[in-house]
Design a protein that fits this description.
By secondary structure, this protein is mainly alpha-helical. 53% of the residues lie in helices and 5% in strands. The strands form 2 sheets. A 5-stranded parallel β-sheet has the order 2-5-6-1-7, with helices on both faces. It has a two-stranded antiparallel ribbon with strand order 3-4.
Length: 768
């Protein structure tokens, strides 16, 4: 559908521009005027490469067509629509190998556009056999209903006789005549819609054969133009359309459709004073054969065939340079309402590969939309702003040219994503290769790498087979190769897929994001100024959290409401911490304020690092003592949670480790609050933890007594000695020592301490 009255095309619009003048297209315009005045010219070819302004030229021409006086009056009164029609049936998606099927589908499309796009009207097309829904105006219904009531009143006048009043009688007869004419008109035009279908039956033994005598024109796979020949002729007689423009039919690469249309044109123009003119827009090579075919008959085939088919041809001089469409890129940039700070040298470079005007319009429109959504105009640094615009321009070219690959960017399965992953290996191999030749590569930028690597020498490097395959694939895509080698598609392409990145005011946060997305290894935890925004952005682009090495980010993960998703990402970070055995990272995480308790933090660490307690005891770092202290504080943080904490610690016998007991003793010596919490923990906890040596609690008798009473000790000789010692000094204390435990070690105690029999008896009595 073409917009008719528009002074200026909307920026980003892809419809044909009907604003050209005779001055813009002088020679072509004059030739078409001459051709249309010649009644013998009914098939005209408008020849030019794709997207050189053929449709815009024809639309502009017909909008300014000089009608004769009668045609002007008819169109001013809106008794007829425009005398021209554009039929566009391009083949967008597939190469149809069945030429016959292709032609039938084309004919159906053309018939659909010609016959069904015309407004349904019983007045204009009363004899049309196409069934349509006709809308009836409510006002017409009301008026006709009132007229019927008036007619009944006038005619009957209470009796079924003609009214004696002559005036009223005349009015009634006039109304009757009007309705009678309408009924008669409809009746006549309904007669030609009746069709006779003959059928007969043959009976052979028990089988019955039905034979329908159907006109051959109704055969399913026949010529649709022939089948609907009368309807088409009738349509052109009534519609007033004389000039039909067929666009892009050559994309089907099927000459048969042109033969069918030429035959149709000839049939339509029989016995007509004003001929129907078919105009075809197509490229010069539409009738050409492969140049590799050196048959002598092939040399002039295209020119000869064109001359036989068309009555007249007009070549369109392109609106822009076919070799380079730089000016068209610049023009679209100029039309944009917002400043697009794109370096125009890239227009020249990409203009060698992209010439389609609609594609250029789409690219620049996408740049404009994304730039506004990303708010690139708010970037204060002019150099950074220009770089952002240039990279956005590159990404939008990639989006339009390689749209299927672009769709895979977010999930990291695109070819571009693979190239980014390849980059480090490519750079390292190039660096090693040059070092042998005493050369140094300046940086790991694509533009620098491809100064040394090209299509002819990439196999000289020690690349893996996969890298070789990826590079060969890259060299076979010239547009992608241009974008890569000019650093328009880099590791930071994710930044242009989400509005969050450019809303980050912190250069430090932006740097961290780029490192994560480019899979750079961050050696130590990085501090973030706005962890929530960074987390939001990384989630939007589905980042790999293996590289998101930041305690601030980890803490932010645990603050989110969608706990299960965030725990999975936290586990990835913890796994990387485990691989590095980075205890400083762990300690920073433990100290950071968050909505997690100490116990919960320790539990999360242990879930991802199941050997953590053993590993932390084996390290020689000074930070070991601080981590152990934190774990012990976590144990006594909440008495009712002690049992859950123990489940992690029991497996490692953590509390019996010397370092742990040393820290525990230091805490019990220094902090009354710690003593109180540990005492309540031991006193109230239903869980059992067996200490191998109770001497660490000797200077805290209150805790020690509770431990002994609850049986939180191993049944070994060291603990037996300590219990006996306490009992001898406090005979009133009752510990409920198991008799079997006493029997097992009492003799050993008697021998080692050289007790008299009397003292031995007293010890036994005190213990039971």
């Amino acid at each position: 559908m073409y917009v008719k009255k528009k002074n200026k095309n909307t920026f980003g619009s892809l419809y044909a521009n009907g604003n050209l003048t005779k001055k813009d297209r002088g020679p072509e315009w004059e030739k078409l005027e001459v051709a249309l005045k010649d009644k013998n010219i009914t098939n005209i070819g408008i020849l030019a490469p794709y997207d050189t302004g053929k449709s815009s030229f024809l639309l502009s021409f017909f909008k300014n067509w000089k009608f004769n006086i009668s045609e002007r009056i008819i169109r001013k009164l809106k008794l007829q629509r425009e005398c021209y029609r554009f039929i566009s049936v391009p083949n967008f998606f597939e190469d149809i190998k069945d030429n016959k099927k292709s032609v039938i589908e084309l004919e159906k499309d053309i018939l659909d556009q010609l016959l069904l796009e015309s407004r349904a009207s019983r007045i204009r097309f009363p004899d049309s056999q196409i069934r349509r829904i006709h809308s009836i105006n409510l006002l017409i219904v009301i008026v006709t209903y009132l007229l019927i009531l008036l007619l009944i009143g006038i005619v009957s006048n209470g009796k079924f006789i003609i009214n004696p009043n002559k005036l009223l009688n005349g009015i009634g007869l006039f109304i009757l005549a009007g309705f009678g004419f309408v009924i008669y008109y409809i009746f006549l035009h309904s007669l030609n819609k009746l069709s006779l279908q003959l059928s007969t039956k043959f009976k052979v033994n028990s089988a019955t054969i039905n034979a329908d005598l159907v006109p051959s024109s109704e055969i399913k796979d026949g010529d649709k133009f022939v089948e609907h020949n009368d309807e088409l002729r009738y349509f052109f007689d009534k519609s007033g359309e004389r000039f039909i423009v067929f666009e892009d039919l050559d994309r089907y690469n099927n000459p048969l459709i042109f033969q069918r249309l030429r035959a149709l044109n000839k049939r339509l123009n029989n016995f007509r004073k004003s001929p129907i003119v078919f105009i075809y827009t197509l490229k010069d090579s539409a009738f050409s054969k492969d140049m590799n075919n050196t048959d002598a008959n092939n040399e002039n085939y295209a020119a000869e065939t064109r001359g036989k088919f068309f009555d007249y041809t007009i070549s369109i001089f392109p609106l822009h340079n076919l070799e380079n469409s730089r000016d068209e890129f610049y023009e679209q940039k100029r039309q944009c309402d917002h400043a697009l700070l794109i370096n125009e040298e890239y227009f020249y470079g990409i203009g060698k590969y992209i010439h389609d005007k609609r594609e250029i319009i789409s690219i620049m429109s996408d740049v404009d939309i994304y730039a506004q959504k990303l708010n690139l105009a708010a970037i204060k640094n002019k150099e950074s702003q220009e770089e952002a615009f240039n990279k956005l321009f590159g990404l939008m070219i990639y989006k339009n040219v390689y749209s299927a690959d672009f769709d895979k960017l977010i999930i990291g399965k695109s070819f571009l994503s693979q190239l980014i992953l390849d980059k480090k290996e490519i750079f390292d191999d190039v660096k090693s290769y040059l070092s042998i030749q005493d050369e140094v590569i300046k940086s790991d930028a694509w533009s620098c790498i491809f100064q040394y690597v090209n299509r002819n020498n990439f196999e000289d490097f020690a690349f893996s087979d996969r890298i070789d395959a990826d590079l060969e694939r890259l060299f076979n895509h010239p547009i992608l190769f241009f974008l890569i080698t000019n650093d328009l598609l880099c590791e930071d392409y994710h930044n242009y897929l989400s509005p969050t990145f450019f809303s980050l005011n912190s250069p430090k946060d932006r740097s961290f994001i780029n490192k994560v997305l480019s899979h750079q290894v961050i050696k130590r935890s990085e501090q973030l100024e706005n962890p929530l925004k960074v987390l939001t952005y990384l989630n939007q682009v589905n980042a790999d959290y293996t590289y998101a090495y930041s305690v601030d980010l980890l803490i932010e993960l645990f603050k989110q409401t969608d706990v299960w998703n965030q725990i999975g990402r936290a586990k990835v970070i913890f796994s990387e911490v485990k691989r590095r055995k980075d205890y400083k990272f762990i300690y920073q995480f433990l100290l950071q304020n968050s909505n997690l308790s100490k116990r919960e933090k320790i539990a999360y660490i242990y879930n991802s690092w199941n050997t953590f307690f053993d590993d932390v005891l084996q390290t020689n770092l000074k930070i070991r003592k601080m981590i152990i202290n934190y774990i012990l504080e976590g144990m006594v943080e909440k008495e009712d949670r002690f049992g859950r904490m123990i489940r992690y610690l029991k497996k490692n016998d953590f509390l019996n480790k010397k370092d742990v007991q040393k820290v525990l003793i230091d805490n019990l010596k220094c902090s009354n609050l710690y003593i109180q919490k540990f005492y309540l923990l031991v006193k109230e906890s239903p869980q059992v933890y067996l200490f191998s040596n109770l001497k660490i609690f000797l200077f805290k008798p209150k805790i020690l007594k509770v431990l002994i009473k609850k049986g939180w000790y191993e049944r070994n000789y060291k603990n037996f000695e300590l219990i006996v010692h306490i009992k001898l000094h406090n005979k009133e204390e009752k510990f409920n020592i198991p008799p079997s435990y006493v029997k097992k070690y009492i003799i050993q105690y008697f021998n080692e301490h050289k007790l008299s029999e009397e003292k031995y008896r007293k010890v036994r009595e005190n213990l039971y």
